Amino acid sequence: FFVISGFVLSYKPTKQIRAGQYEALLDTLASSVFRRGLRLYLPVAAGTFLSMLIAYMGWYRELPESSTDALPPNFDNFSDHFWHWRNHMVGISWPFQEVTPNTPYGPPYNGHLWTIPIEYYGSIVVYGMVLGFSRCQALVRLVAFACVAMATLHYERWDLFLFLSGALLAETSLMNVNEEDFDFEYQSEKRKWWSGLLAMYLGDISYALYIVHGPVLFTVGTWFMDTFGQVDGTGPWIIAFTGAALFNTIISVWVADLFWRGVDAKSVDLAKWFAGKCWRKD
């Protein structure tokens, strides 16, 4: 996840560096840094608020004793729910989370979102590294990124190591494109496959799916297993489990699609609009 983020975040600015488009590079980095917080946290605020409403309605189902997941608390009134949610939104919005020894903060309204503060922090580090070494030769950039990545691993910042590894992969992928003996036909076929409609759609809803799959799992998914999974014998249990996985996947993708169209895509548009309003007109 973090490797892919490092790759995606650095690919366009690295491509601009290699093309000598330094003015465009500055615009790209300035826009990316300015909008990154809004891009990440607007959907998270909406998703965790919906999770708070689900908890208030009592729709979360009790988890098995063996589960390591946690559900949101269930207070007596909406006000307590709201302020509890608000306090944890402030907590998850702080990007300087402690990750050593592998104990990042997980918000109670969706524990899977422990990655978001790390994602924000890692994004800014990648942008800063790209800008700092933008005037260097490609080989110098590679060595610098590799050295910093190894230093972060030495100091147990495994998160930054993964981000910078993704940035290294972006640099090397662009270097490979310029090789004269590159197999363009093979790459063309790969691009054709990965740029297909299904892959593009899954890419569009990926962030929404990440945000909503937990609440879906702990409501609809657990309901399905509680209703149809209480069977005897290994065979019937496997059938029930497979049915629950399929059912939960379908519902998760459907809810993610709704969340993407109603929240995520609009958050992107809002961040662009806000940046446009704040940007200086030259």
Account of the 3D structure:
The mean pLDDT is 86. This protein has helices spanning 2-18, 22-57, 78-92, 115-132, 138-154, 158-177, 184-194, 197-228, 234-278. The longest helix is centred in the C-terminal third of the chain and has 45 residues, at 234-278. It has 282 residues and is mainly alpha-helical.
Q: What does this entry show, briefly?
A:
By secondary structure, this protein is mostly helical. The protein has nine helices and no strands.
Features:
9 helices, mainly alpha, 282 residues
Topology:
Blueprint: H1 2-18, H2 22-57, H3 78-92, H4 115-132, H5 138-154, H6 158-177, H7 184-194, H8 197-228, H9 234-278
Helix pairs in contact: 1-2, 1-4, 1-6, 2-3, 2-4, 2-8, 2-9, 4-6, 5-6, 8-9
Average the pLDDT over all residues and give the rounded result.
86
SSE pattern, N- to C-terminal: HHHHHHHHH
Give the overall shape, derived from the CA principal axes.
Answer: globular
Q: Report how far the terminal alpha carbons are from each other.
A: 37 Å
Number of helices: 9
Q: Radius of gyration, Cα only, in angstroms?
A: 22 Å
Strand-residue proportion: under 5%
The biggest sheet amounts to: none
The computed structural class is mainly alpha
